[in-house]
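Quick start: what a row looks like.
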Amino acid sequence: MQGLVADLPYRILLPGEDGFPLLPVEEDCATFAENAAKKALAAARAAAGPWVIADDSGLEVEALEGAPGVRSARFAGQEGEPAERDRANTLLLLQRLRGVPAERRQARFVCVLALADARGLLATVRGEVRGQILEAPQGTGGFGYDPVFFHPHSGRTFAQMTTDEKLAISHRGRALEDLRRFLGGR
């Protein structure tokens, strides 16, 4: 995010910095856009002033009718540390896709960023990247579903890419670029 606005007249504050509140917001909406907007609006109203950017993102698998979708981070439940949840989520995904042929394992990562202030929602942008779910993890980088998300144009999983390589093509990278354009960047 800092890189997003480095040449623009904005400064990014993380929750907890300079009195900016960290609010737990239940992600109970039906879409990524609704969850992102809900989080951005709650934080903007609590902060009473600055613009707030919030995101919601996840994985949609065609053979699973869009699942895990907005429940991507909680697909296998909410127990354990983040790394444990990531492993459990990936294992459940692979179990649900067991026996599904490669041509039906199409998926996409989706990220929606919402920009709001205390008066309301200012903008939402959406980024997505298409790929395929592998039968077994490959790579050690990234997090979440990255080891099983194969990006055909690069010939690698997200877990086999550097952070910069992934950001250049990822759903979050694409959403950030759109938000940058909205904020006046090129």
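That is the whole record. The chain has a mean pLDDT of 91. Strands lie at 52-61, 106-117, 120-133, 149-151, 156-157.
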